[in-house]
Write a structure and sequence with these properties.
alpha+beta, Arc Repressor Mutant, subunit A, 2 domains, six-stranded antiparallel β-sheet, binds zinc ion
Length: 212
């Protein structure tokens, strides 16, 4: 069961097709794995569509009434993105890496952790991170936004426990140290807009080489 979703601004921007490529990849993958997120996106699309239908200038309160009326007429909300809960790799991610995690080039990051960088056209950096069971990432802080979508396995940090389909949406500058659950590798899709700030000296030295 999915308990962590991205913030509303991100889902609404996704609905409006306003996200950059890397962010859209992460949010679209999460949306495919989460019925709640699919419903939110479908609602955003309906609101956007209704507002676009009201080209003539009318007072904002009246415009909102019209949108709510129209939404009330629609029995079913959802289904804008086809669910695909059974496939390991959600299809937006499949478009970039194919359908096998094992066949990818995984480069070493240190401490048994490996990554696969995903090229996108926007300024966000997308990567897959593979963390061995029970292994901790170096403690770090963020000066920008970081999305983490769990593809398999799970991890925990101060903010909670995350398992397959969950998305962590961090933009508060707080530090954290994710630790992979025991039992299997944790594989996550991560998108960042600025380099993270590591607290330890060794990760800071390695940072230019591993492009985190
Ligand atoms: Zn982080």
């Amino acid at each position: 069961m999915i308990t962590h979703c991205p913030k509303d601004d991100l889902l609404l921007s996704y609905s409006a097709g306003a996200l950059g490529e890397s962010w859209s990849l992460a949010v679209g993958s999460h949306v495919q794995m989460s019925k709640e997120a699919r419903d939110d996106v479908a609602l955003g699309e309906k609101i956007g569509g209704s507002l676009l239908g009201d080209i003539a200038p009318i007072p904002l309160e009246k415009s909102l009434d019209i949108v709510l009326d129209r939404l009330g007429d629609q029995e079913h909300i959802g289904g804008a993105v086809e669910p695909q809960q059974d496939a390991l790799i959600p299809s937006p991610l499949c478009d970039y890496i194919g359908d096998s995690l094992e066949d990818l080039d995984w480069s070493k990051v240190g401490n048994g952790i490996t990554q696969h960088l995903i090229e996108t056209s926007d300024s966000g950096q997308a990567r897959l991170l593979r963390i061995p069971p029970g292994t901790a990432l170096p403690e770090h802080e963020h000066s920008g936004r970081e999305l983490t979508l769990v593809i398999s396995g799970g991890y925990s940090d101060d903010s909670g426990s995350y398992s397959r389909g969950d998305m962590a949406d961090i933009d508060d500058g707080l530090g954290h140290q994710p630790i992979a659950d025991e039992g299997e590798d944790c594989i996550c899709l991560i998108v960042t807009d600025t380099p993270v700030k590591f607290k330890g000296i060794l990760p800071r030295i390695l940072q230019p080489f591993i492009r985190i």
